[in-house]
Amino acid sequence: xxxxxKEVALEQSTHGLGILLDGRALKxxxxxxxxxxxxxxxxxxxxxxxxxxxxxDPLQMPLTxxxxxxxxxxxxxxAGFAAAIAAYGESDAFCYRAEPDEPLxxxxxxxxxxxxxxxxxxxxxxxxRIAGVLHQPQPEATLEKLRMAVSARGTFELAAMAKxxxxxxxxxxxxxxxxxxxxxEELWQAVxxxxxxxxxxxxxxxxxxxxxxxxxxxYMSAAHFLDLLRG
Length: 231
Fold this sequence. Notes:
By secondary structure, this protein is mainly alpha-helical.
C-alpha cells in the first residue's frame, strides 16, 4: 500500500493516545481504535508513521505491530493469551541441558543457572534441570506461580511477551527481561548459547547467522516496546 497521508499527529483520548493521519484516527487492522498507554510509546509509534516512505512496509513498523496485536488479539482473549505464554515454562529451554559428560554442560550451567536461581528467588519456585531433550514435567506449584506472574502483566506487555517467548523458548528469560533483571543483550546471548557454542567449535554458517540476526532484530524490537510501556 502506498503512503496516503502527509501529516502525522497525536490525539489525547479518555483511553490513551491515538495517532492521527491527516486528522483521521488510525485504526488497527480489525478496525479497532488504537489507543496507546504511554507518551513514550505513542511518540515512537508516531515516528514509525512519519518515517514511512512511498510504500508502507509493516516489517519496518514493529512497534505499531505490537500495539495492533495488543488491541486486536490480546484484549479479546487476555486469559488465553497469557496461558499460551506461561506454557513455555513447562519446557523452559534453560532447564534442558547436555549430558553431564559433554563439554557444553558446564557452559550451560554457568550461563543459565543464574537466571533460574533468579526466578526461583523472585517467584518462590523450584526448577528441575534435565539432561537430554526428552520432556520431563516441572513441579505443578512452579507452573502455577509462573502462570500467575504472566497473568499479572498488562495487555500491551503480553503482546510483546508472546513474541519474546516464541523467540527465546524460555519463560524465565522473558520474565527476567520484563522485570529488568537483565539487559536485552545479555539475555539474548543466554538464549543463543547453544548456537554460539556450535559456531565457536564447528564454524559459522552464513544462513544460520542471518537467521539469528533476523530473530535478534525482532527480539530487540519487542524489548524496546516493553521499555516504552514504562514511559
